[in-house]
Amino acid sequence: MEFDIENIITGLGNFEAKVKEIIDIYGDIAAKELEEEVKDNLSYSSKTVELANEIESGKEWTGDNCIIYVAGNKQEFVNLELANDKRYAVLKPAIDKLSPEILRNMDNLLGG
Length: 112
Description:
The protein has helices spanning 5-40, 48-53, 75-82, 91-109; strands at 55-62, 65-72. It is α+β, with helices and mostly antiparallel strands. The protein starts with a helix and ends with a helix.
């Protein structure tokens, strides 16, 4: 039995590229889900609209690692997340709520 090592290497390279593409696409979707969860759970106040506009999400690659993030880009988010016994936190609760689902979906996409 003979193996053509070049075909195997090419096939593995193509497979790796497809896996990265799947992760990249799902990373964008998961980041938007996190952003929507945060915006849906902001307590109503006169500043809610202003704060909602400062929420950003996305994904970035660091080497082979895809990092999904959601962030509040104003100082008020530090207060929301840390002050008042964290009663008004919105970023971490969204991450805690959706992380298991995001990881489960990623596992399913990758054939786990």
